[in-house]
Amino acid sequence: MKSGLHFLIAARECEIGDLEQLALTGELVGLIGQLVHALQRERGLSNLFLGSRGTRFAQARDQQLLQCDAAALELRRHFDAMDTQGTAVRNGARLFGRIATVLQALDALPALRQEIAVQTVTPPAATAAFVRLVAGLLQVVFEAADSATDPQISRALVALFNFMQGKEFAGQERAFGGACFAEGHLESGRAQQWLELIESQERCFRIALDFSDAAIQAAWRGAVDTRTQAELERLRRIGCTLRADGLLDPELAQVWYDCCTQRIDAMRAVEELLAAQLLQLCASRIAKARDELRNHEAIRDALVRTASAADTGEPVPNYGPHLERSIIDLVQEQARRLQQMADELDTVRASLNERKIIERAKGLLMATRKLSEADAHKMLRQTAMNQNRKLLDVAQSVLALSDYL
Amino acid sequence: MKSGLHFLIAARECEIGDLEQLALTGELVGLIGQLVHALQRERGLSNLFLGSRGTRFAQARDQQLLQCDAAALELRRHFDAMDTQGTAVRNGARLFGRIATVLQALDALPALRQEIAVQTVTPPAATAAFVRLVAGLLQVVFEAADSATDPQISRALVALFNFMQGKEFAGQERAFGGACFAEGHLESGRAQQWLELIESQERCFRIALDFSDAAIQAAWRGAVDTRTQAELERLRRIGCTLRADGLLDPELAQVWYDCCTQRIDAMRAVEELLAAQLLQLCASRIAKARDELRNHEAIRDALVRTASAADTGEPVPNYGPHLERSIIDLVQEQARRLQQMADELDTVRASLNERKIIERAKGLLMATRKLSEADAHKMLRQTAMNQNRKLLDVAQSVLALSDYL
Question: Does B295 fall in a domain?
């Protein structure tokens, strides 16, 4: 009959399997970060190109397409190498479903690029298509964070996901502002949209830094030099402050793009640090779990030796009661540790759950009120501001009152 | 390169793997229910035996030990047959850890029984040991419910878990009241404990029925005949209403035990219905997922035929655009379905999370105030009653203020 020790060892092995899975996911997340970064640039350049009615930025855009293709190819190679046969992948049903969506969006990219090249698409429509593609990629990262069973790794994934999401809002701001400058004027209502992109970034970075260690926090503080930051704020002020005639200097488009790009590239460096930290964390957790597994196995082997010595009538080594005590302690310690891990995990995941609740409330508003995602978000935010409540609280109220909507 | 369709199929396969895992877990839960039922009887009879100072119930207890051993053997056989090698078991780290704890507690059972036989243990201490063992078994069911990824199955598991937990409180009441009657008197303070066991039962059954369908609700309403129910309430009144002299009629011990047992056996029948429903649900969900998988595979095969026809220069069948459209629809429908399932799952799991939060708050109070579990629970409940708040709210406040404790 299998003993408690047997299941203790099996539990450890499963834990190691989960951690190895997470390490693979960490690599996947790194490749996604790379592709997202390239797509963010392509989106920005596409908007500059469209905003200038095709008169500028064509060459820079063409070069960027090649970079995107290279990053997409690397990601596709990783997808190809994934073990989709077995059911070894934790959370496979949802992860693979998200990947299917991403692949479909990537397949549709050439058609979008063609439309941009011949300018049969507006900057907002082109931006929206890129935003959807990037959102699909980030959703893969979210699923990874959501399936992590180790609280430390879950923390790292929550930090990384929020950082990537914040960087994406920064990328959207670059594309949005780029189109405005390149068009040479700001349509009314756009200033508000611009401000929301700034706020969304800041919210995400706040969460990301809350879940990061001092090294990352320091890297983030030092990432963007003060001159770039000041230049960005100056351009934001020019862009967002609506002049009576609504005109903007088109020459600022390039300045804006370069300034934003410098900042976003600095973010990418921090993101790479976060991703490297994640992989390192996986490796050290795996090494530790393997150590503990070896300890358990040593105890099991000693027990087997004791038993076989007893069978053959040899003098039984005298660590019987000591060993038994060890096993009882081990099982109890493991139970405590599992409970502690589960508790920590719940705490870390609370931030993911908040996001889920807000997303669900948005989805509900989109369905019942036939709103776009942006409008649903705006409606929630507006209610929160009017009632001086947190966005999460408003989202929860919306879900609680779903029958009335 | 792997296509979106490839990952769609892989996602389905993972889903089926998860469902098959859940079906196995369903069997495990059934065996646990059987052992718990036997242990609950053994606990009740042990308390009657101890309460009567060994003068009565010895034979009934001896017979019950055999039934327990048979149920334990069946469960151990299931454990032995479990695939602990691969990392195929979802949530293996936690599930196996819980099983290790259960096996250890089962190994300690003979020593406890010996103490009961020679009456070197008090009824409360014996009860506490059985309560811990049953709690460990129910924790395995909880892990199963917690790891379910299908909202319908998660619902069924939440219902079953809460029902089993409610039945366990009923079993604790039987053992508790049995000892009181057999001892022939009620110590002060015990009436409150008795009332809490009644309330805890009712809370669990309320949740269980909320998550059950009409058939189960009807079965539960018809399970306990009104005569038994009336008799139970009469005995509860006699037991809980402290007479000035605190004396109870020891002859009522057998009446009490039989009445409770009739009720608990009726619960067991409903529990078996719930367990059967769970298995049926798993089977039908698996059949449905397999159907859908076959559809996906048919589309994939049609695509392969189209491609190879094109390669060999044969006339290409003309369902190309139609097929491509189907795949895009499939991926989008799958994405919607996954999102919907995730949302439903969150809703169902909210009730599990409530339990986790209350357990964590209790754990915190136990650690910081050096309280027993029962006292920590009482403290939370008392605060909730005094402040007219929900237990969950109080537990959340406790966790939020953990730094102050």
Answer: no
